[in-house]
Amino acid sequence: MEWLGRAAPGVEQWAGQVADAACHLVDATGPGDWSAAAAEDALDAIDTLVEALGSTGESIAQALAVVAAATNSARRHLGIAVEEQAQEPEPAAAATVPTPRRARPRRRGLGPGFQGIRTDH
Fold first, then answer.
1. Is the pLDDT of residue 1 over 90?
2. Listed residue (24, 20, 14, 109) closest to 53, CA to CA
């Protein structure tokens, strides 16, 4: 098992800003509020974060590989071009057993004016 150590300077702050921005995006959007360009930017951001976090170790990269496959699948469903080098093979259907999913409540951001969690001691 790979353990994460102390974050490099600025990493925790940038990660916090990304999380805050994601919450603001969730608060600002609904099903009909997306354009192809906005969806592509969001999928690119997800891929970039997966690549960055995957660089922490091979087991993390392997665990996150399904996310890269999912963003490529989402691009295809939305009619957004998928770059050749970014294409990951689709997971084999026989390798995964679908689990029954319960309806989950829609995730919401933390609301307007959220200032983040203070970590200064």
1. no
2. 14
Please give the average per-residue pLDDT across 76-80, as a whole number.
Answer: 91
Please give the Cα distance from 3 to 14 (Å, whole number).
Answer: 20
Q: Which two tokens stand for residue 57?
A: 């170790």
Helical packing angle, 36-54 and 11-28, nearest 10°: 150
Tens of pLDDT, residue by residue over 12-50, are 999 999 999 999 999 999 888 999 899 999 999 999 999
Whether 96 has a pLDDT exceeding 70, the answer reads no
66-105 as b/e: b if 16+ CB within 10 A? ebbebbbebbeeeebeeeeeeeeeeeeeeeeeeeeeeeee
Unique residue bearing structure tokens 């990493």: 11
Residues in CB range of 108: below 8 A, 6 or more apart:
26, 27
Distance CA 17, CA 14 (A): 5
pLDDT band at 6 (very low <50, low <70, confident <90, very high): confident
Return d(Cα 120, Cα 112) in angstroms, integer: 22
